[in-house]
Amino acid sequence: MRLDAKALRYMSNDDFRVLTAIEVGSRNHNIVPAPVIAQLSHLRGGGANKHISDLVKRKLIATEQNAKYKGYKLVYAGYDYLALRTLSKRGTVTSVGNQIGVGKESDIFVVAGEDENEVVLKLHRLGRQSFRNVKQKRDYFRQDQSPSWMYMSRLSAQKEYAFMKVLHEHGFPVPTPVDQNRHCV
Questions:
Q1: 127's torsion region: left (phi>0), alpha (psi -120 to 50) or beta?
Q2: Distance of CA 1 to the CA centre of its chain
Q3: Higher pLDDT pick, 144 / 47
Q4: N or C: where does the chain have the smaller number of CB atoms within 10 Å of the terminal CB?
Q5: What is the DSSP code string of 126-178?
């Protein structure tokens, strides 16, 4: 999957409010209805619909038709933008460079921080076609639960960051953990 961070600087705060509303709404809905998005984003007068259509055009969210209603769901590109925005507000990431690796669970990019030092950004992407049996092989959930792939990617990134931090503090030769947000380490 390609990460195109160029459009990130042209997105408004309301665009991110809508993305965040879809992320929050995804906790209770597989497909988040437009009225729920408008309610969670606190945008009035059809403002949410304009931003939703812009986000669909940018392919940050996907339109889904259910038997009962039409709704939207967050795709990895939108999740990437939410995480990158948070990391840039913290000063951890100021620019995104080239992709240096692709694996069955993640994509790896070179990024720069406020001090212009190059660091590596790992975006967890569980749920790819070639790696669908992760739900049975990992201990994130019980067998009767079926969480979304994005939530599992988030848990995977949190665990990796926590382990790297502890190992680094105890002198093991692991990369220096800098920051973690959503599915990014």
A1: left
A2: 13
A3: 47
A4: N
A5: TT-GGGTTHHHHSSSS-TT----HHHHHHHHHHHHHHHHHHHHHTT-S-PPP-
Distance of CA 8 to the CA centre of its chain: 14
Encoded tokens for 24: 């929050």
Q: Can you tell me which residue has the tokens 């009767």? A: 144
CA 110 remoteness from chain centre: 17
What is the Cα–Cα distance from 48 to 8, expressed in whole angstroms?
Answer: 18
Burial of 159 (0-12, 13-18, 19+ CB in 10 A): middle
Cα–Cα distances in angstroms (integers) from residue 185 to residues 98, 119, 138, in the given order: 16, 10, 19
Minimum mean pLDDT among 15-29, 71-85, 140-154: which range? 140-154
pLDDT of amino acid 92: 92
Phi, psi at 40, each rounded to 5°: -70, -30
- Per-residue burial over 34-53, b = 16 or more CB atoms within 10 Å of its CB, e = otherwise: bebbbebbebeeeebeebbe
- 70-74 and 32-33 beta bridge pairing: antiparallel
Query: Tens of pLDDT along 153-180?
Result: 898 899 999 999 999 999 999 999 999 9
Using DSSP's 3-state secondary structure scheme, residue 98 falls into strand
DSSP string, 12-78: -HHHHHHHHHHHHHTTT-SSEEHHHHHHHHT--TTHHHHHHHHHHHTTSEEEEE-SS-EEEEE-HHH
